[in-house]
Amino acid sequence: MESFDPTKSPAVDQVGIAERAARFVTRSIKGACKREGLEMVLGMIDLTTLEGADTPHRIAQLCHKAAHLHDAIPGLPAAAAVCVYPPLVRFARAQLGAKSTIRIASVATSFPSGQASLQQKLEESRFAVSEGADEIDMVLSRGRFLSGDYEYVFDEISAVKEACGKARLKVILETGELGTLDHVRRATDLAIHAGADFIKTSTGKISPAATLPVTLVMLLAIRDYHFRSGRMVGMKPAGGISNAKLALHYLIMVKETLGPAWLSKEWFRFGASSLANDVLMQIARLETGHYQAARYFSKD
Fold first, then answer.
1. Angle CA(206)–CA(37)–CA(211) in degrees, nearest 5?
2. So what's the pLDDT on residue 296?
3. What are the pLDDT digits (tens) for 254-272?
4. Got the DSSP string for 224-248?
5. pLDDT at 300
């Protein structure tokens, strides 16, 4: 990993960010472009279940929906990934099958609090990978970060990245607990330099979760890093994105900030399981000319 001084992260123009983010929601996409955008959103969704009551039956339902979002409309993409706790990774892998293009993501490092020893975090990450996880979603140690212990946070991310082996590492900042956009920018820069493959806004367990201004700050950090290094880093807003219109605004923001190369599931994801059904309802309306009732789309 390259050397990095997080205290030198640029300050964020909060007024400018708010104004720029607000402009994205004034854009309108219609016709064939809208249909293309909606299908793109579907293929970028990580369907997630992260509850204490999760069972193999629940995971089986999730995996089936990921592969068959709505068979009544042919040609729709599958979801990008399913995200589960480490003990359920092996079962999810078996449900999807060896030939599936759907990734298995697993939260690790004492999700969602991150309050565990480094050794525990490394063991959990290695376990999830050994069970078949393609991606590890780790949580930033927010207490350490907010205390200014940047070296510890950097080294922890680097160690988890190494423990992931070939699996991709997403670092969850939990931006709702970071307090300011300056902290969001600094945490993003730190995670990227420590080796993160993806930056993720939130665990989905606290509010506020993803917002357009927060995501824009993170996208700008990714852009600046790419300009300097040539390495692409992915982005995943998670939580609070529940309707298709807002998801399309996110895609516009990504394209205009990072460029079309990021408009793929390899580099952009939505962590919003409830989003899938609203997108499906919008596609069905374009297909049939009228809305279908929510009961026609499976919740799981």
1. 25
2. 57
3. 999 999 999 999 999 999 7
4. HHHHHH----EEE-BSS--SHHHHH
5. 57
Residue 143 CB neighbour total at 10 angstroms: 13
Q: Which residues pair with 60 in a beta bridge?
A: none
Q: Which of the residues are catalytic?
A: 137, 200, 236
Q: Cβ distance 122 to 99 under 8 Å?
A: no
Where helices occur in the chain by DSSP H, the ranges are 14-24, 31-42, 56-67, 89-96, 118-130, 142-146, 150-164, 181-194, 212-229, 244-258, 275-288
Q: pTM for the complete prediction?
A: 0.94
User: pLDDT below 70 — which residues of the chain?
Assistant: 1-2, 290-300
Q: What 3-state DSSP class applies to 116?
A: coil
- The Cα 171–Cα 164 span in angstroms is 12
Q: Tell me, what's the pLDDT at 298?
A: 63
CA 264, chain centre distance (Å):
13
Inter-residue contact 171 to 158 (CB < 8 Å): no
Residue with tokens 């079962």: 91
Domains in the chain, CATH or no CATH each: 6-296 (3.20.20.70)
Buried b (16+ CB within 10 A) or exposed e, 260-280: eebbebbbbbbbbbebbbbbb
Is 236 within 8 Å of 198 (Cβ atoms)?
A: yes
Q: Is the distance from CB of 205 to CB of 112 less than 8 angstroms?
A: yes
